[in-house]
Amino acid sequence: MTVMSNGAAANSGSGHNWLLLLLKARTLVALLLVFAFFSVMAPNFLSAANAILISKHVAINAFLAIGMTFVIITGGIDLSVGSVVGLTSMIAGYLVLNGIDLGVGYSLQFNTLEIVAIVCLAGALVGCINGILITRLNVAPFIATLGMLYVARGAALLFSDGQTFPNLNGNPEYGSDSFYLIGTGSFLGLPVMVWMLVAVSLAAGYIASRTPLGRQIYATGGNERGAALSGVRVNRVKMFVYMFSGLMAALVGLIIASQLKAAHPATGEFFELNAIAAAVLGGTSMSGGRGRIAGTIVGAFVIGILSDGLVMMGVSSFWQMVIKGLVIIAAVVIDQAQSRLQARVALAQEVALNR
C-alpha cells in the first residue's frame, strides 16, 4: 500500500494537467512542426503561389472533414463522402453540358446558382438515405455508408458510361458560364472556395457551440440512450448530420468540377480517408461525444501541408500513403491516451474534493 502526501498528490495532479493540456493542443503543435519542417526541407514552400495552392487543397478536405466531424461526434462514420463527391461532380457536369432532356424536343437549362442548388440537394439526398438506413432500418453506420460508397460510385459511372464530361465552360445564354468561378474565382486575393470554407466553418462552429442542435449532437454521441431519455430526438439529429455530410461532399464535387472544367466519375476516391484523418487529428473522438470544428480545420491544414510538402520533396506516393496511415493511427492512439488521462484527472479531483 502506497501512502502519498497531499503535496505529492498536488504535484502529480499538476503534472497530469500539464500533460492533458499538451495532448489537447496536439493538433496545433503538429501544425507548427510540419510547417517548420517543410519550410526548411521543401523548396519554394513559403512562396505565395504555394500558399494559395495549399489553401485550395486544404479547403477541399476541410469541407468533407467538417461534415465528418458532426457524424463522428454522434458516434457514426460516413465512408460514402468520396463517392458522393464523384457522383455530384458528374451531376454538375451533366447539367452544365446538357441540362435535363424533357424528351419532347425541349430541355431544361439551368444557370449557375440553380446548378449549385440542384447538386447540393442531390448530396443532401444521399445523406438522407444514409440517415434512413441507420435510423429506421438499424443498419450500422459503417455498413450503411460502405454500401452507399459503392452505390454512389456506380451511379457516377452510369451517368456517362464511365466517360468524362469535358469542357464545362457553360453557356452565357443560360447563365451557366460563371460556373468556373466556384473553383477558380478569387475575391480580395483569396480563392472563392476559401471564402466558402470560412463561411461554412463559422456556421458549423456556431451550430456546434451555440445552438440546441449542437448540444443534442454532442449528447447523442456521449450517451445516446441518456440523450433519448432526456427528450433529444436522436434519429432527427442523426438524419441532420448525415445530410450535412452529404451536402459538404456536394460542395466539393462542385468545386472540383469547376476547377477542372471537367467531371470524371473517379473523382473523390479515398477522400473519405483524408476527411477522417483531419477530424481525428483535430481532436474528434472516434467513440463519439467530443470534437471541435476549429480543431478539425487545424487538422485539415496538417493533412494538407503534409501532403503538399511531401510532394514538393519528391516523396513517392506510396510512402505518402504509409505516412498518412501512420498519422491516423498516431492520432487515435493519442486520443485514447487523452481520454484515459482525463478520466484519471477527474477521479483525482473527485478524491480531493471528498477529503
Characterization of this structure:
Helices cover 73% and strands 2% of the residues. With 355 residues, it is mainly alpha-helical. The strands form two sheets. Strands 1-2 form a two-stranded antiparallel sheet. Strands 3-4 form a two-stranded antiparallel sheet. A hairpin with a 2-residue loop joins β3 (186-187) and β4. The radius of gyration is 22 Å and the shape is globular. 39% of the residues are buried. It comes from Hoeflea alexandrii.
Offer a few descriptive terms:
355 residues, two-stranded antiparallel ribbon, globular, ABC transporter involved in vitamin B12 uptake, BtuC, cell inner membrane, transmembrane helix, two-stranded antiparallel sheet, 14 helices
CATH class: Mainly Alpha
Tally of helical segments: 14
How many individual domains? 1
Q: Shape, please?
A: globular
- Structural class computed from helices and strand pairing: mainly alpha
Strands across the major sheet, in which order? 1-2
| DSSP summary, beta strand count | 4
Q: Main sheet? A: 2 strands, antiparallel
Fraction in helix:
over 70%
The CATH architecture comes to Orthogonal Bundle
Contiguous runs where pLDDT drops below 50 for at least 5 residues: 1-5, 7-12
The Cα radius of gyration reads: 22 Å
Order of helices and strands: HHHHEEHHHEEHHHHHHH
Tell me the β content. under 5%
Distance between the first and last residues' Cα: 18 Å
